[in-house]
Specification:
The complex is a heterodimer of chains A (119) and B (104). By secondary structure, chain A is an all-beta fold. Chain A contains no helices and eleven strands. In chain A, strands 2, 4, 5, 6, 9, 10 and 11 form a seven-stranded mixed beta sheet that branches. In chain A, β4 (35-41) and β5 (48-54) form a beta hairpin. In chain B, β4 and β5 form a beta hairpin. Chain B has 104 residues and is mainly β. Chain B starts with a strand and ends with a strand. In chain B, strands 2, 4, 5, 6, 9, 10 and 11 form a seven-stranded mixed beta sheet that branches. Chain B has a four-stranded antiparallel beta sheet with strand order 1-3-8-7, with no helix packed on it. Chain B contains no helices and eleven strands. The chains are: A mainly beta (119), B mainly beta (104). Chains A and B meet through β5 of A and β4, β5, β9 and β10 of B.
């Protein structure tokens, strides 16, 4: 059974860079033509897609509202994909989820990790 | 860019009752690629329905999806205690704002 697990700092200072990794277990990140994505959810609010990467790393897609600050990449040797979000502010405080994204839907999710932006 | 609107914002019902949730798109949804998720407090969303009407693996048949074009519906035929949650629709990486189904 495919499992995803987010990891990274739970506290990031304003103006710094948020970096998270998602480790995939129970299957290979490059075993099929899957995309892999990041979604976030501010406390008490709804879901917001951040970005998506193809398993070969050759194609990336970003939310236009975050595009200038976001990088999503894949490391097949570690069976991981990653998120970098630069110049964070308090508005970036959220639970960050990683997910598999076959065919435009999110079918397997990590448990989520809370990232707080505060000095 | 497509915008998804969900109604009602909150639905207060009792176990055993029928729940009808609406998702309306600002433009026609291509290939009826409309997806529904359920999210319980402190948990990640769970895939319920994709392609507007196909249940995901392991989803009970009391959950059903319907609709086409711009209007879609998620129906829970008889609410079980574990069904109370927030439900989101999604298309092309855009999520609706969610409908909370809580206990009356």
């Amino acid at each position: 059974q495919l499992q995803l697990q987010e990891s990274g700092p739970g506290l990031v200072k304003p103006s710094e860079t948020l970096s998270l990794a998602c480790t995939v277990s129970g299957g290979s990140i490059s075993s099929s033509s899957n995309h892999w994505g990041w979604i976030r959810q501010p406390p008490g609010k709804g879901l917001e897609w951040i970005g998506t990467v193809h398993y070969n790393g050759g194609s990336t897609y970003y939310n236009p509202s975050l595009k200038s600050r976001v990088t999503v990449s894949v490391d097949t040797s570690r069976n991981q994909f990653s998120l970098r979000l630069t110049s964070v502010t308090a508005a970036d405080t959220a639970v960050y989820y990683c997910a598999r994204m076959p065919g435009g839907l999110f079918d397997s999710w990590g448990q989520g990790t809370l990232v707080t932006v505060s000095s | 860019e497509i915008v998804l609107t969900q109604s009602p914002g909150t639905l207060s019902l009792s176990p055993g009752e029928r729940a009808t949730l609406s998702c309306r798109a600002s433009q026609s949804v291509s290939n009826n690629q409309l997806v529904w998720y359920q999210q319980k407090p402190g948990q990640a969303p769970r895939l319920l329905i994709y392609g507007a009407s196909t249940r995901a693996t392991g989803i009970p048949d009391r959950f059903s999806g319907s609709g086409s074009g711009t209007d879609f519906t998620l129906t829970i035929s008889r609410l079980e205690p574990e069904d109370f949650a927030v439900f989101y629709c999604q298309h092309d990486a855009i999520f609706g704002p969610g409908t909370k189904v809580d206990v009356k």
